[in-house]
Design a protein that fits this description.
Elements: E1 5-13, H1 19-32, E2 36-42, E3 45-52, H2 54-65, E4 76-80, E5 88-92, E6 113-114, H3 116-125, E7 134-138, H4 142-145, E8 148-150, E9 154-155, H5 164-170, H6 172-175, E10 179-183, H7 188-199, E11 205-208, H8 211-218, E12 225-227, E13 229-230, E14 237-238
């Protein structure tokens, strides 16, 4: 048994018309490498959470990135003393993160992304570089926020991410004339949310590039963040050093 397990989370919106065939290939490679976790494939892209021995997991990711569609895939890393997943699952679904808004197509173009250091500076200032009031919008489920969130973030108490479009329609006035930064755990939900807000006519919309995990990774002491970051594995949540204990 390894002393520590490497954990990867990553996603990319990219056209995958061969998602069913790709599922067989990725499942076989992950099983042979002794990995556990979940890989979700859809015509709109890939979303993955995997853990295993470092050499095996990095080797699997390298083979994945040999496919030009995944070249340079940005995988966020953390470590755990125990394997945080019980099983390996590779699934094909309609969406890699369900929103039920087929007109929102991130593979066709991203909303603007703000990096962690710039966001921390904006939060220090209380406004963006254009002087507009800053509003943090949490796009995660309500139970995730109980573990931690950005100070003063707007929380629509979502039961699931597919509730976001209805919540947006009901709260458009609260977003007008502000710079809205959507955020989530790793970036996938806030990326779709930012595009949905743009489509709804919100002019100044950004997504937090890499989500909370990247913010905790690159910003010492995570200014303007409180608590822990919920993750969907046996660790349940991570501290500011991206450490968690599998149960």
């Amino acid at each position: 048994m390894p002393d520590r397990y490497l954990n990867f989370s990553a996603y990319r919106f990219v056209g995958l018309p061969d998602s069913a065939a790709l599922r067989e290939q990725l499942h076989a490679a992950a099983r042979a490498a002794g990995l556990r976790g979940t890989v979700i494939l859809a015509e709109e892209g890939i979303n993955l959470f995997l853990a295993g021995e470092e050499i095996a997991l990095r080797g699997w990711l390298k083979r994945l990135c040999d496919d030009a569609r995944f070249a340079g895939l940005d995988a966020k890393e953390s470590w755990s003393d125990e394997q945080p997943f019980r099983f390996l699952r590779v699934k094909v679904k309609r969406e890699i993160i369900r929103m039920n808004q087929p007109q929102v197509r991130p593979a066709a173009g991203r909303a603007p992304a703000v990096d962690a250091a710039t966001l921390a500076r904006w939060l220090d200032q209380g406004h963006d570089d254009g002087g507009r009031e800053l509003l943090m919008l949490d796009t995660r489920n309500a139970f995730e926020l109980e573990h931690g969130a950005f100070d003063g973030a707007l929380d629509w108490r979502l039961g699931k991410f597919s509730d976001f479009p209805a919540a947006l329609a009901a709260n458009l006035d609260a977003l007008q004339d502000r710079t809205v930064v959507s955020y989530c755990t790793g970036g996938i939900r806030c990326e779709k949310a930012a595009l949905a807000m743009q489509a709804a006519g919100i002019e100044h919309v950004w997504q937090l590039d890499g989500g909370i995990l990247r913010y905790l990774e690159v910003m010492p002491d995570a200014p303007h963040w409180h608590g822990r970051c919920f993750v969907f594995d046996e660790r349940e949540s991570l501290d500011l050093q991206l450490q968690g204990v599998a149960k």
